[in-house]
Recover the amino acids of this structure.
């Protein structure tokens, strides 16, 4: 379609702009917004990266693991009395409610990931099915979960749940950074460090690395491969649940049955950008993708360009450096 | 390469499993309709021809016959339902080239369908500022344009491992939809009215290919399906088809044996894309209206479900799968809202329990045709000569 446009210039040309002044003017706010969204991408990306590292499988249904978490957050908070307006509860009870929502979201997402692995992937692994079969199952499972949610909750988006009023905290280069952004980025980074340390330092983490490196040798060395795989899915699910809480914090309205899909593709792009199979790469890729997507959106003049930019980055990375910025191997990361 | 991918079995265990597999294969790979297929293969050639002609005639008469049990009538117009089934079948045959033959997972097939639709709309609708050409000419143009898009998308991604293609095509499907919304020349939700139609008027002066009249559109699509099936059948039995199957079975081995895998993968992708564009152009003509609402990811997955359900790698299976996927929601309107759920679950269940679909593709001696195959198959000890149905159909072409 683009080539047709180039041949026949069209009068209405404002669909794409190269608004550099606007980018310079909004540079820092775009950066901080991008970092916030990027932290969420990063958390989701870990789920893709871990499963890819261990099983060599793009788990398409991971976006649904995330959206189940988002539904859990919205439903729990609605039940606790949160709504579209800013809650008037004391701070301590808000924090308590949010922690409760976080735990339930993590449990819901982890449970979804667990069921997914047991019901969909495990039978295939037992049969030693070819890769194409795994991928088709993954996309089918993603679809099935999406439309199960559709069946239960309908096509409409859930009502908004505002968690708290974002307070300006401090001022950087004339741009105000608010409390939401700080909470999300710091919490995401802490979770990622914990995950990274879990994989690098614990016994189970060593098992994950061993299975990623060579499943057969790992089995010979006494690693329970099935257990490691299920743990990998659960860790990805827990982080997706956390990402769900932060996502709803940032975008209180519009949680919808098919809302995970685009986010999933972006998170996967982040994982590839940072180096798939690499937990630190997932965070780095997420943050970079968040920032670049925001710049692209301001530069090109429509919020929908973020998705296009993320996709183009994915293709470019695959084309130029398919191993990503930090390299691909989960197995090769050192303790 | 394949050694470093995925869960592996110990060397000893692998050989053991292999022998079991070889023994189990005749039973395991047989489809639901295996007795029927065997019976078909036992028939002499002229009788098979006769049956084929009868089937084709019945297929052409389908919208007129309107068989009471099969009809979608009170809920949906039967002739339009026939057209819908035919276009899904055509799409499934096209996607089958990519997924079934070459083993490349394309999750954004609807994007090619969309490109074909928009090409037809841009070149015929009075709403478009571009030069207008007769509708029938848009079909080859749409095929060429989508093929171009297929190559552009395929060249960067097909060099990589197969999984990446899946996510890139998934993203591409979404991007095409977004671009159709953002770019003003593509008119977003407003879309293009009065897309062209083939020439011809009925006795009462109304156009023969009216939007509400499914029958002529169905006949046109059916004719195109037959042509595409003949072409794809010939490709399948040619060097190209053998290369595709070699790539699907083991890409590294194929590369080592001297198959230029990348080139053939691009070919499969481009040919599949052009069939998608073709069906998109037909769809645009029949509906007469194109906007950005029809081309979502769900539709792509439905197309994939059609191929997988019918049997990836078997063009008759894909045809059947396309017909089923289109027919069920139209016939059983009560469950039409749950079609995505049903086909999503169906995808998982098929993959777990019957990964070859209803009509499984069969490993066979592609190079030597029917006679040699029969001779090898009818070695002492073999009971039935299980040649798949399309081998005959193809040989007949």
């Amino acid at each position: 379609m683009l080539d047709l446009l180039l041949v026949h210039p069209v009068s209405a040309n404002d669909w794409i702009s190269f608004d550099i002044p606007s980018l310079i003017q909004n540079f820092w706010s775009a950066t901080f917004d991008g970092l916030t969204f990027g932290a969420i991408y990063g958390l989701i990306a870990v789920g893709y990266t871990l499963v890819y590292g261990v099983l060599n499988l793009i788990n398409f249904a991971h976006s649904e693991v995330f959206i189940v978490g988002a539904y859990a957050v919205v439903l729990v908070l609605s039940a606790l009395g949160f709504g579209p307006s800013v809650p008037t509860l004391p701070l301590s009870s808000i924090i308590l409610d949010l922690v409760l929502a976080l735990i339930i979201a993590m449990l819901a997402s982890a449970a979804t990931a667990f069921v997914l692995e047991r019901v969909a992937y495990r039978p295939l692994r037992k049969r030693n099915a070819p890769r194409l079969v795994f991928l088709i199952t993954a996309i089918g499972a993603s679809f099935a979960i999406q439309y199960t949610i559709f069946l239960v909750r309908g096509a409409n988006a859930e009502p908004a749940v505002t968690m708290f009023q974002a307070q300006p905290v401090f001022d950087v280069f004339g741009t105000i950074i608010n409390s939401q952004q700080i909470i999300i980025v710091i919490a995401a980074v802490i979770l990622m460090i914990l995950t990274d340390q879990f994989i690098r330092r614990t016994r189970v983490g060593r098992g994950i690395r061993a299975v990623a490196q060579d499943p057969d040798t790992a089995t010979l060395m006494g690693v329970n491969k099935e257990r490691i795989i299920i743990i990998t899915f659960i860790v990805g699910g827990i982080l997706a649940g956390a990402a769900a809480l932060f996502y709803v914090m940032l975008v209180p309205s519009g949680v919808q049955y098919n809302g995970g899909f685009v986010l999933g593709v972006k998170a996967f792009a982040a994982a590839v950008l940072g180096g798939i199979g690499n937990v630190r790469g997932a965070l780095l890729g997420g943050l970079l993708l968040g920032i670049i997507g925001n710049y692209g959106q301001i530069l090109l003049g429509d919020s929908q360009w973020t998705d296009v930019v993320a996709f183009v980055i994915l293709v470019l990375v695959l084309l130029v450096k398919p191993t990503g910025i930090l390299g691909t191997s989960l197995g090769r990361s050192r303790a | 390469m394949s050694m470093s991918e995925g869960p592996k079995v110990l060397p000893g265990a692998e050989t053991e499993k292999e022998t079991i597999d070889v023994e189990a294969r005749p039973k395991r790979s047989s489809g639901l309709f295996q007795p029927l297929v065997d019976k078909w293969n036992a028939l002499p050639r002229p009788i098979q021809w006769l049956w084929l002609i009868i089937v084709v005639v019945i297929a052409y008469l389908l919208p007129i016959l309107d068989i009471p049990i099969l009809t979608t009538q009170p809920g949906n117009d039967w002739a339009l339902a026939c057209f819908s089934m035919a276009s899904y079948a055509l799409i499934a045959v096209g996607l089958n080239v990519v997924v079934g033959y070459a083993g490349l997972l394309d999750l954004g097939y609807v994007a090619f369908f969309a490109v074909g639709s928009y090409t037809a709309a841009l070149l015929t609708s009075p709403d478009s500022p571009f030069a207008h050409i007769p509708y029938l000419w848009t079909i080859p143009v749409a095929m060429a344009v989508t093929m171009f898009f297929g190559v552009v998308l395929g060249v960067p991604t097909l060099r990589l491992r197969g999984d990446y293609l899946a996510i890139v095509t998934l993203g591409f499907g979404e991007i095409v939809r977004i671009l159709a919304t953002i770019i003003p020349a593509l008119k977003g939700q407003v879309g293009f009215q009065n897309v062209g139609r083939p020439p011809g008027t009925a006795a009462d002066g109304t156009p023969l290919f009216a939007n509400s009249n499914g029958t002529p559109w169905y006949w046109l699509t059916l004719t195109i399906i037959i042509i595409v099936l003949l072409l794809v059948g010939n490709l399948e039995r040619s060097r190209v088809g053998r290369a595709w199957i070699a790539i699907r079975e083991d890409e590294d081995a194929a590369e080592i044996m001297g198959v230029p895998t990348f080139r053939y993968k691009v070919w499969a992708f481009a040919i599949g894309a052009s069939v998608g564009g073709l069906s998109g152009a037909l769809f645009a003509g029949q509906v007469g209206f194109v906007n950005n609402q029809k081309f979502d990811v769900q539709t792509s997955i439905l197309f994939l479900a059609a191929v997988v359900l019918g049997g990836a790698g078997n063009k008759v299976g894909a045809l059947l799968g396309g017909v089923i996927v289109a027919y069920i929601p139209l016939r059983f309107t009560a469950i039409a809202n749950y079609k995505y759920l049903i086909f999503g679950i169906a995808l998982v269940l098929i993959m777990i329990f019957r990964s070859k679909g209803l009509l499984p593709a069969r490993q066979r001696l592609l190079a030597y045709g029917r006679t040699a195959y029969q001779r090898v198959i009818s070695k002492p000890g073999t009971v039935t000569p299980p040649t798949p149905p399309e081998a005959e159909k193809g040989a007949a072409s």
In short: Residues 91-127 of chain A form the longest helix (37 residues). The radius of gyration of chain A is 20 Å. Residues 24 and 299 of chain A are 9 Å apart (CA to CA).
